[in-house]
Specification:
four-stranded parallel β-sheet, binds 6-O-phosphono-beta-D-fructofuranose, Rossmann fold, 2 domains, seven-stranded mixed β-sheet
Length: about 375
């Protein structure tokens, strides 16, 4: 075995460069293996955009956000968008072309650094005979089989800092401040940052909320002399009997978003209380990774190389109970991990007076 391929797929997150560095240095220093980096996720695999990555290229990138390889969350090699003869696009299965390119570069095992979408694509390639090792990344922290994904800690830290800042202005103006955070259909960022920032109400998709419960909590705070409230809303949160809020983009894509403003409007209408919504958006994906994310990404990257060197294939590295280990790609790509409303973390938040705005609060 001589060469490892690596790509970063899906939405970026802080820590991707730390992983690329760890895979490259771990391969070169410990096993004398070469590393080929494919550009822009699976698109580079289909279009044969790749290069050998040496020590020089990964030097000084540990603390940098983004990914030196580039990424995309649009290109699926099994339904790849190619220009159609009469204009527009058609979707074509380019998976064989991608495999040819791996052969062209003499790649013996492909490291896919991705979230659920990219890992599922990696799994499909493994079923076609391509040796694959997965590394879990996403700010959403919603992958099964790993306790934590890298990128999450940084996103939660960014959201916490924002909540801290909103706290002071909320207090000065006696307002309800709603912070909308990312996370897709899982509430991990909202729960983590909401707890760390002392949010009064945390809205997560796993516990549909009720406007009456939200308003009662605000009134209860007022009765104790607290004239402001901080509400942390996951972008996928929705009211009981409703569903997550998507908006259609000009390009035809569906994106989660807007629940923060909806909650702000409802509070203003029901309580006559001035309310403001702040959407943190992609700030949560950018910037310098936290020490935790740098270390986790490094441990994952090194373990991926060790697995490859030891002959493992079609597995994903993961963190379980503090230890780095691995699971099958099939298990890794089996859906998303969401918050159990009766878990200890939710109960701890409730124990210190945090409301989840839900009638189903089970703690
Ligand atoms: O999965 C990561 C994530 O940042 C989600 O939290 C968010 O819903 C989505 O990606 C945003 O995607 P895009 O970068 O395409 O706007």
């Amino acid at each position: 075995m001589t060469r490892i391929g690596i790509l970063t797929g899906g939405g970026d997150c802080p820590g991707l460069n730390a992983v690329i560095r760890a895979v490259t240095k771990g391969a070169l220093y410990r096993h004398d293996l070469e590393v080929v980096g494919f550009s822009n996720g699976f698109r580079g695999l289909v279009e044969n955009e790749a290069r050998l990555i040496g020590e020089e290229e990964v030097s000084g990138i540990l603390h940098r956000g983004g990914t030196i390889l580039g990424t995309t969350n649009r290109d699926n090699p099994f339904a790849f968008r190619l220009p159609a003869p009469g204009g527009g696009f058609r979707k074509v299965d380019c998976s064989r072309r991608a495999i040819k390119n791996l052969e062209r570069w003499s790649v013996d095992c492909l490291v896919v650094v991705g979230g659920d979408g990219s890992l599922a694509l990696g799994h499909r390639f493994s079923q076609m005979g391509v040796p694959v090792i997965g590394i879990p990344k996403t700010i959403d922290n919603d992958l099964p089989a790993t306790d934590v994904t890298f990128g999450f800690d940084t996103a939660a830290a960014t959201a916490t800092e924002a909540i801290d800042k909103l706290h002071t202005t909320a207090e000065s103006h006696h307002r309800a401040m709603i912070v909308e955070v990312m996370g897709r259909n899982a509430g991990w960022i909202a729960l983590q940052a909401g707890m760390a920032g002392g949010g009064d109400i945390i809205l997560i998709p796993e516990m549909p909320f009720d406007y009456d419960v939200i308003c009662s909590k605000i009134l209860e705070r007022r009765s104790r002399g607290k004239q402001f409230s901080i509400i942390v809303a996951a972008e996928g949160a929705y009211p009981e009997g409703g569903e997550p809020l998507y908006r259609q983009t000009a390009g035809g894509a569906k994106r989660l978003g807007g629940i923060g403003q909806l909650v702000a409007d409802a509070i203003e209408m029901r309580l006559g209380m001035e309310s403001r919504a702040t959407v943190l958006g992609h700030l949560q994906r950018g910037g310098t990774p936290t020490p935790y994310d740098r270390v986790l990404a490094t441990r994952f990257g090194v373990q991926a190389v060790e697995l490859i060197h030891a002959g493992h294939r079609n597995e994903m590295v993961c963190l379980q109970g503090g230890d780095i280990c691995s699971v099958s790609l099939a298990e890794a790509a089996s859906g998303v991990r969401r918050i159990d409303p009766s878990c200890e973390q939710v109960r701890a938040a409730a124990a210190v007076g945090t409301s989840f705005g839900s009638r189903q609060e089970e703690y």
